[in-house]
Amino acid sequence: MGLLLAGALLGMSAVQAAPKLRIHWALVQNDIEPGVCLTKWTFINDGTTPLPGTGWTIYYCQLSVNPEYKAGDLMHFERISASSHKITPTEMFAGLAAGDTITLDVRFKGAILKENAGPEGAFLVLDSTGAPVTIPIEAERFTNSKQWSRGIDTWYKYADGELLYEKFLSFTAGSAIREPVFLLPRPKVVEWTARRSTRSSGQLPPEGYIIDISYGSVKIQSSDSVGQYYAEKTMERLRKAGLPNCHIEDWPDYPFRGFMLDIARNFTRKADILRLIDQMSDYKLNVLHLHLADDEAWRLEIPGIPELTEIGSKRGYTTDERNCMLPYYGGGWNDKDMSNSANGFLTREDFKEILRYAQEHYIQVIPEIDIPGHSRAAIKCMEARYHKYIQNDPSRAYQYLLTDFNRPKLDYNSAQSYKDNVIAVNLTSAQNFMEKVIGEIRKMYTEAGIKPTYFHLGGDEVAKGVYTDEQFTHFLVQLQGIVTDNGFYPAGWEEIAAIWPQTQSEQPSDGKKPLCNCWKVSQKKAQELSDQGFPVVLSCANVLYFDHVYVRHQEETGLYWAGSCEVMDTYLFEPIRNENVRGLEAHVFAETLRGNYQQVERYIFPRLFALSERAWNARPESAAKFQGHTVTPAEWNASICKHELKRLQDNGIHFHLSQPGIHVEKNYATMITSVPGAVIRYTLDGTEPTATSAVYSSPVRVRQGTTIRAKAFYLGKESNSTWWIPNESDNKKASTSTYNGSTY
Predict the structure, then answer these.
(1) Extended strands (E) in 593-632
(2) Buried-most residue among 274, 545, 615, 732 (CB within 10 A)?
């Protein structure tokens, strides 16, 4: 049975008395009863020192589930906060001798549908030493549908071979566009002939350009400097093709074509952010939204409040969060390990370099500090500052305090299961804090020579009942003044509109109403807010949250609360259009990122191609026709697979490769892939397909009871493998094998 290593081995403290433990974890079944899953935890003592019956704690991280505890259990599994958990011995536990093993059945509220959603980042702390020691976790692979499914899966079906076959079938009926150069996003007008434009640059919309090439002679017109830049981006591709004769007219349908990267929950380093800017620029995206702070960490240096990065940019073993934050997500005890994406921040100089580099690529940077919810990191940092100064310098202790110690503690639970992540909006010090933070960020823009645009205040998922809407609105009145006084326009998630101070203005351009990222699956809220005069950016989670799984099966990485998001789901998205809909923005939130930018690239490519296309051309028919007809989805899909995936490979950029679909009828198996040009290799004995397995070329005869496994291979990449398993309860279930990359 295969094993996954879950949790990086971050190093081990030299504690001679500590037992040498490891954990073997397995999911038994989801919905052992409605809403409850059953797991097996096997604790193995490989050392020569026993684990005592008392006086220790094991810490670990796990998303989305909450352990149950009942009297008589040997160990008490307990959620500390959100994804941070601990295990302690009960009076029933007698210890674990050297060389011994103990297995426990543990129930959790919730469901675990993916192999990489198990526990990770475990470490042991003995009371006698207080020193953390890493515990490796081995996670069993899933082997049956009771693990990768649950009772409420009717709305969000498992990606078995039959589902993938049906999903991808229509995209196999087209060939790549046969033109001298494939241009992405597709221009408004493309003619592969030598002629001069009758349109002048003054007739072009903003960011527009015209290119005429006639037997090596090039003429470029543009409406502005941005249009000139995009013309040059198009020329880069034309030059590589030898400057074919052409006439091109082009401009974007939306002025806002954005991408958001969450560097708070898990950190992405400056060099990789610069790499992201290059990639965005290549596809004519023009807004980089950086999510800089959240419940789990703070990632930007703020002069005068050093605690934000001295404490808030690190996660590890702590009993009071006065030196670092609790270990969330990937976990681990070592807050000094800078190879762990839990740790790190952008200095002022880093941020200014990012601003300048983005400006060179005609990309504006929107900073986000998410308040008044999603603020646990800032709250805990300011509590640590309070305790540091309260005895000797009370004014500094209270200066930026975000906790009202005089207010009774409320029992609330945020969307991510935090009970202490809402700042005290009634405190003047909370206003002082935001004034300081926004002012310091404004200085970074000034020193970088960059004009600020929007400042994103978050405003989403504030736990109900902590403060009244009136109190939040009063706080936002103050923030609105701070934001505008610093030269920014306000922005937030769609929830911010409900508590934004009322204004008579119906013109969104005056900055009185915040730019709203509308993230719900339906565009109903976006339509409603745009009708009320709010400027809107479409951020619909089911087609624009690129941290979601491509399809729902157990080896995919990413979240799935809004469903799955395949590249063609994004391409087929039909955004609403009116004067207040400014554009589209895709997102990668970082709960499932684990320390390398390659994973970010696999999340965004090839989906970024569809974002680029739809943000530039609101509908396929907005773009140039091909051979007299609107480019079909199948033709577009075949073109990006042939041209753009090859371009990624040539530039060392990682991408996700979709797995095949399998359909069995009358003892014949038909296999397809959504990637024209990919090779499908398969086995009929249940073994893992490899680069030497049989190549699929035509329907394969299969005997009754045959287990089929298939993988796609393309440009040096290989997909997850699809299984077709006979005699499952639904007759056609699948599972997958090795994911090519980290386990998250």
Answers:
(1) none
(2) 615
Cα 590 to Cα 547: distance, rounded to the nearest angstrom: 7
Residue 507 lies in a domain: yes
Considering the domain architecture, whether residues 209 and 305 belong to the same structural domain is answered as no
The verdict on whether 506 is a catalytic residue reads: no
Tell me which amino acid residue 397 is.
A
Parts of the chain with a pLDDT under 50: 1-16, 504-506, 508-509, 729-744
Both 54 and 118 in a single domain? yes
Chain mean position to CA 359: 24
Dihedral (C-alpha) 442, 443, 449, 450: value to the nearest 10 degrees? -10
Domain match, 353 and 445 both: yes
> Could you report the per-residue pLDDT of 193-208, keeping only the tens digit for each?
998 777 777 789 999 9
3-state secondary structure of 207: coil
CA distances to 181, 219, 317, 371, 536 from 293, rounded to whole Å, are 42, 46, 20, 9, 22
Residue 730, pLDDT score: 37
Which residue in the list 138, 232, 461, 528 is annotated as catalytic? Answer: 461
In a domain, 632, yes or no: no
Is the same domain home to 131 and 208? no
Residue 527 and residue 536: Cα distance in Å, rounded? 9
Condensed to tens digits (0 to 9), the pLDDT of residues 61-74 reads 999 899 999 889 99
**Whole-angstrom Cα distance, residue 347 to residue 309?**
9
Beta-bridge partner residues of 81: 84
Q: Do residues 131 and 164 share a domain?
A: no
Are 174 and 197 contained in the same domain?
no
Q: Hey, what are 417's tokens? A: 């299961």
Separation between Cα atoms, residue 354 and residue 604, nearest integer Å:
20
Overall domain count for the chain? 4
Q: What is the CATH number of the domain that holds 243?
A: 3.30.379.10
Domain contains 462: yes
**Residue 239 located in a structural domain:** yes
What pLDDT does residue 103 have? 98
Give the pLDDT of residue 512. 79
Residue 54 belongs to what domain range?
A: 3-149
608 & 554 share domain: yes
pLDDT tens profile 326-361: 999 988 999 999 999 999 999 999 999 999 999 999
Of the residues 564, 598, 622, the one at which a domain ends: 622
- At residue 510, the pLDDT reads 54
CA distance 642 to 651: 15
